[in-house]
Design brief:
Spore Coat Polysaccharide Biosynthesis Protein SpsA, Chain A, Immunoglobulin-like, Glyco_trans_2-like, glycosyltransferase activity, transferase, alpha+beta, nine-stranded mixed beta sheet, globular
C-alpha cells in the first residue's frame, strides 16, 4: 500500500515539474523523495537487504548483494549465511556500491553497502538444489535482526534448459541444409582409453545433427584388449569412422598426426578420446562458417563432465579472440576447429609438446589465420577423471613445461622477446617482456585539496618505483586548503615534479587534455590522486605493453583500501552502460577463468591508472570534454579500439585506489544529476557497441552484476 502511495505522490509532484530544460535539479529532487519513501517501504527491522545473485558451482556457493540500515552501512553489524540450518559463515561486508549510493544518496555511507560470500559446503552437509534454502541473517544496531530466505538453485542447469535445443529442435536441425556443407574430420588419438569413455565419445559423434563428418582414430598400440575390437566394430558399422592401429605409441602429437593422415575433410576438429561433443556441435560450426566464410580457426565454449557422465558443470564462457589472453592461458582449448589448409601451412602437431600440443598448435595457427571465430555456445564436454587435467591440475605436470616452451617459441616467431614463467596457478602463464627502450613517462595527476591522499600517492611513486625515467605533472584545480599548497611546495622541490594550474571548473577530461599538452614524455600515465603504489615495478609492467605497437592502452589492478578488488578491467553493457569486472572480489581470488591474475585483453580500463603512448592519445583526439565526470576513460578506450588497437589489463601493476575520493561519492543531487548526464551521453554515443556486446565478455554472462555469473532468464 505504501508503495502505491509513494508512486502517486511522485506522479502528482512531477506534474508540478517545470518544463525548463534546466530543471534537472527538480527531477533529481523528486527521485530522491521517491527513493527515500521506497527505502522506508522496503525496510524491515530498520534494515533493507537485497540479494543480487546466488551461484552454486558443485559444492561451492557464491552470493552477492547489499544491505543498509537507517543509519547507513555502519548500522550493519554482521551478515550470517546459513544453508538450511547449518551456519556456513559470515559475508564480507562494506564493498563499494556506487549504484546503491546513487539510489539512496540520503543514507550515510550507502556507497559502502555491498557484500559477498564465497564458501565451500562442508562434506557433512547434504543439500538439494531447488529445495534447500539459504538464509541471510543481518544483525543491525541494538541487536535487531532481519532474515531473508532464498532457494538454492543450480543456475547452470537452468541455463541449459533455457538455451540448449530439446529433442524436437535437434530433429529440425537434422533436416537443415546449408549452401556450404563441408566435411569436418574429427581427429582423435587413443591410448588405453577406458571402455565407457571411448564408447560415449564415439556415440556423441554418431549423435551429431550434422551428418557430413568423419571420425579419424589413431590408436597408439594400446594394451587394453577391448580397444582394437571396439574400434574395428564401429568402423565396420559406419564408413565415416576411420581407424589406424599404430605399431607403437607415438605420443599425443604423433598419434594425432597419424589420425590426420586419414582425414579427407576441409575442416579438422580436435576431440579427445575421453570427452564428449554436444549433439549440435558440428551444425553450429557449419552455421558459423556459412555466415563468416573467411574464418580459418574457430573455437567454442565448453564445460566439465563428471566421470560417470551424469552431470555437467563449471561452464567456460569465453571471450572472443583475445591474443594476450591466449599468451596467458590456453583459453580456447575445446572445441577447436581448423581449416585444413591452415593446419597444413603450420605443419600440424609438433613433437616435444605432449600435454600442450594443442596449445602449441593454436599459437602457431592463430599467428597465420586470416580470421578467428568464436561460438559462444557450449559445444564440448571435458570429462573429469583421475588422469584428467579437468579434475586434477597436478595429474600431468609435464604439460606446463611444454606450454612454457610453446609460448617461448611463439615469442620468437612473432619477433618479441621475454621470459615465460608460471603465473602462480597451474595452466596460467606470465610473460615479462624485454624493455628495449626506456621512454620518459609523464604521470599526470589532477588534484583539488585532499592533501594527505596526494602526499601518500606522491610518496609511493617517488619512493617505491623502480623505473626512474618519469616526470610527475600535478594539475592544481581549485584547491582552498593551505596544507594542499604546502604539499605542492614540498614535492615540486623534486626535479621531476612540476605544478600546473587549471583555472576553470573541474572537468576531468579537459584537465587531463590540458596537462597532456604540457607533458614531455613519449608515454602518458593518467593517475588519480587517491591511488597508492604497491608493486615497485608497476611502471615497467605497464610500459612493457604500452610500447608494443598494437597496444593502445594499459590498465592496472586496483584495490580498495580494504584489499578487495576495485578495478580489473571494464565490462561493457553492465547496468546498461559499463562497470568494473570482479569489483568487490577478495584480493586473492583468481576471478572468472583466472582473469584477475593474468594479463588479458579488455574493452576498456579505468582512467584512475591508465597508460598509453602520446602518439595514440593525439591520434584519437584525447579525452572527450563532453564527459566532465564519468565515462571519459571508457570513451577514450572505445575510440582506441575503433582504431584497431588493443586494450590490456595487467595484474602485475598493483595500486590501492580509494574510488572517487577526489570528488566524493556521487551522493547528493547535483552529483547524481552529473552522473546521469554522462551516462545518457555515453549510451547515446556508444549504443551500437553496447548492443553488439563486449567481445571480451560473453553473451551468456549477466549484465546485471560485475561477478561474471550466468545470465538469468
Amino acid at each position: 500500500m505504501l508503495k502505491g502511495i509513494t508512486r502517486t505522490l511522485y506522479w502528482k509532484m512531477s506534474r508540478l515539474c517545470p518544463k525548463n530544460p534546466r530543471s534537472g535539479w527538480w527531477a533529481a529532487l523528486l527521485a530522491t523523495v521517491y527513493q527515500r519513501a521506497k527505502f522506508y517501504a522496503k525496510q524491515r527491522q530498520g534494515i533493507v537487504l537485497t540479494i543480487d545473485h546466488i551461484g552454486l558451482f558443485g559444492r561451492r556457493i557464491g552470493a552477492t548483494g547489499w544491505a543498509l540500515s537507517r543509519k547507513g552501512s555502519t548500522g550493519v553489524q554482521q551478515i550470517a549465511v546459513y544453508l538450511d540450518e547449518h551456519l556456513l559463515g559470515n559475508a564480507v561486508y562494506g564493498h563499494a556500491r556506487a549504484d546503491v549510493a546513487r539510489t539512496y544518496p540520503f543514507i550515510a555511507n550507502s556507497g559502502r553497502s555491498g557484500f559477498h560470500f564465497y564458501s565451500d559446503i562442508p562434506e557433512y552437509i547434504t543439500f538439494t538444489p531447488g529445495v534447500s534454502l539459504l538464509r541471510f541473517e543481518v544483525t543491525g544496531e541494538r541487536g535487531r535482526c532481519y532474515q531473508l530466505h532464498c532457494q538454492l538453485r543450480d543456475e547452470y542447469y537452468e541455463w541449459i534448459l533455457r538455451n540448449e535445443p530439446d529433442a524436437a529442435a535437434l530433429e529440425l536441425q537434422r533436416q537443415t541444409r546449408f549452401a556450404y556443407q563441408p566435411r569436418i574430420s574429427l581427429i582423435t588419438p587413443t591410448y588405453n582409453t577406458p571402455e565407457t569413455f571411448l564408447i560415449e565419445m564415439i556415440q556423441s559423434v554418431l549423435a551429431q545433427t550434422y551428418s557430413n563428418w568423419e571420425l579419424c582414430l589413431a590408436d597408439g598400440a594400446s594394451h587394453a584388449p577391448y580397444i582394437k575390437e571396439l574400434l574395428a566394430r564401429y568402423a565396420r558399422q559406419d564408413a565415416r569412422i576411420k581407424v589406424i592401429f599404430l605399431p607403437e605409441n607415438l605420443g599425443i602429437a604423433g598419434n594425432s598426426n597419424a589420425a590426420i593422415t586419414l582425414a579427407s575433410g576441409e575442416w579438422i576438429g580436435l576431440l579427445d578420446h575421453d570427452d564428449v561433443l554436444a549433439p549440435f556441435a558440428l551444425i553450429e560450426i557449419v552455421k558459423y562458417l556459412n555466415q563468416r566464410p573467411d574464418t580459418e580457426y574457430l573455437y567454442s565454449d565448453e564445460d566439465r563432465l563428471s566421470e560417470d557422465g551424469a552431470m555437467r558443470h563449471a561452464p567456460q564462457f569465453k571471450p572472443d579472440w583475445s591474443p594476450d589472453t591466449l599468451r596467458s592461458t590456453n583459453y580456447p582449448t575445446h572445441f577447436s576447429v581448423f581449416k585444413r589448409a591452415l593446419l597444413e601451412r603450420v605443419g600440424g602437431f609438433r613433437p616435444g609438446f605432449d600435454g600442450s600440443q594443442d596449445y602449441d598448435l593454436i599459437l602457431r595457427a592463430t599467428e597465420q589465420a586470416r580470421e578467428i571465430g568464436h561460438i559462444p555456445k557450449v559445444l564440448y564436454h571435458w570429462r573429469m577423471h583421475e588422469n584428467s587435467l579437468a579434475r586434477d591440475a597436478l595429474s600431468k605436470t609435464y604439460t606446463y613445461n611444454a606450454a612454457q616452451k610453446a609460448l617461448q617459441d611463439h615469442l620468437l616467431r612473432i619477433g618479441m622477446s621475454g621470459i615465460v614463467e608460471n603465473a602462480g596457478i597451474l595452466g596460467f602463464y606470465k610473460i615479462t617482456y624485454t624493455l628495449k627502450i626506456s621512454p620518459l613517462v609523464s604521470i599526470i595527476i589532477p588534484n583539488q585539496d585532499h592533501a594527505s591522499d596526494l602526499k601518500r600517492c606522491l610518496h609511493s611513486i617517488l619512493k617505491k618505483s623502480s623505473y626512474r625515467n618519469f616526470e610527475i605533472l600535478l594539475v592544481e584545480n581549485g584547491s582552498k586548503k593551505p596544507e594542499t599548497f604546502a604539499i605542492y611546495d614540498q614535492f615540486t622541490s623534486e626535479a621531476n615534479v612540476h605544478l600546473l594550474e587549471w583555472q576553470h571548473p573541474f572537468n576531468y577530461a579537459a584537465v587531463n587534455n590540458f596537462a597532456a599538452q604540457q607533458a614531455a614524455g613519449e608515454v602518458l600515465l593518467f593517475l588519480n590522486n587517491d591511488t597508492q603504489v604497491i608493486t615497485p615495478d608497476w611502471l615497467e609492467r605497464m610500459l612493457e605493453h604500452a610500447i608494443r605497437p598494437e597496444i593502445g592502452a594499459v590498465g592496472a589492478k586496483l584495490y580498495y583500501p580494504d584489499g578487495t578488488i576495485q578495478h580489473a578491467g571494464v565490462i561493457l553493457g553492465i547496468h546498461g552502460s559499463a562497470a568494473h569486472g570482479h569489483q568487490g572480489f577478495p584480493a586473492n581470488a583468481p576471478g572468472y577463468m583466472g582473469r584477475l591474475n593474468i594479463v588479458h585483453n579488455v574493452s576498456a580500463v579505468t582512467g584512475a591508472c591508465l597508460m598509453l603512448r602520446r602518439e595514440i592519445f593525439q591520434e584519437i583526439g584525447g579525452f572527450d570534454e563532453r564527459y566532465p565526470f564519468a565515462f571519459n576513460d571508457i570513451d577514450l578506450c572505445l575510440k582506441i579500439r575503433q582504431k584497431n588497437y588493443l586494450v590490456i589489463y595487467t595484474p602485475y601493476a598493483e595500486l590501492y585506489h580509494d574510488e572517487s575520493m577526489s570528488r566524493g561519492y556521487d551522493d547528493h543531487l547535483e552529483k547524481y544529476h552529473r552522473f546521469k548526464q554522462d551516462t545518457r551521453l555515453f549510451q547515446e554515443q556508444w549504443q551500437h557497441i553496447l548492443d553488439r556486446g563486449d567481445p571480451y565478455y560473453n553473451p551468456n554472462l549477466t549484465l546485471d552484476r560485475e561477478d561474471f555469473s550466468i545470465k538469468s532468464a
